[in-house]
Design a protein that fits this description.
CATH class: Alpha Beta
Number of strands: 5
Helix content: 40-55%
Number of helices: 8
Strand order of the largest sheet: 2-1-3-4-5
Distance between the termini: 21 Å
Oligomer: single chain
Order of helices and strands: EHEHEHEHEHHHH
CATH topology: Rossmann fold
Strand content: 5-15%
């Protein structure tokens, strides 16, 4: 996929976030974008190099900062996501001319949380998803509709219904092939993207 269709995703990979990440990935594929996420790459590559390559190769980026806060008392906050956001903004500001056209969406769980603690991101597109996957899909859809006004996007509600239908279908298909529920719930992200693409082609043809 060319630069114009790539979407870099900066997010945590813990089990709890999968409830948000998988609908997000499906949404991007449904809109005919190509998700770029370090988790799909070979572990032999240095992760930060993968991330920088994805940032350079992607016109669009979605940064979820909702898990950057401490998870438990006395824990340190996770700085990976804000760090990658900084790299992306730096690329847009100081990189080649084509990078000045990059579009960046910042997601958080609570409205205005990060504007309070990271005031330098004021002016960026920031949306809160309230840890609800259907809300996330709707916010991402509306952002793309503004960022790419020449393209028509289906409603977030339609994408959410399609995602649930897809997940039921792929679960039943994989169970019939001998996969366990654990294997389905923990399938590699690259598998999930590939299954999503195949299902959407069949669903929309």
């Amino acid at each position: 996929m060319p630069f114009e269709n790539n979407v870099f995703i900066n997010c945590p990979f813990d089990d709890d976030f999968m409830e948000l990440l998988r609908p997000l990935l499906f949404c991007l594929v449904y809109f005919d974008f190509e998700p770029k996420i370090a988790q799909t790459e070979s572990s032999a590559n240095i992760r930060i190099n993968q991330i920088k390559q994805h940032i350079r190769n992607s016109k669009f980026s979605i940064h979820d900062l909702s898990r950057s806060k401490p998870l438990k008392k006395n824990d340190l906050p996770r700085f990976n996501m804000p760090y990658e956001l900084g790299l992306d903004i730096g690329c847009a500001e100081f990189g080649l001319k084509k990078y000045s056209f990059k579009k960046i969406l910042i997601l958080e769980a609570e409205r205005y949380h990060y504007q309070k603690v990271l005031s330098d991101i004021a002016g960026q597109d920031i949306e809160n998803h309230e840890n609800d996957p259907s809300t996330l899909i709707r916010k991402v859809r509306n952002w793309f509709s503004t960022a790419v006004p020449e393209k028509d996007f289906p409603s977030g509600h339609r994408v959410w219904i399609a995602y649930n239908q897809f997940y039921d279908d792929i679960t039943n298909t994989l169970l019939a092939k001998g996969f366990t529920i654990w294997e389905i719930e923990n399938m590699p992200t690259s598998d999930f993207i590939r299954f999503s693409k195949r299902w959407i082609i069949d669903f929309t043809s």
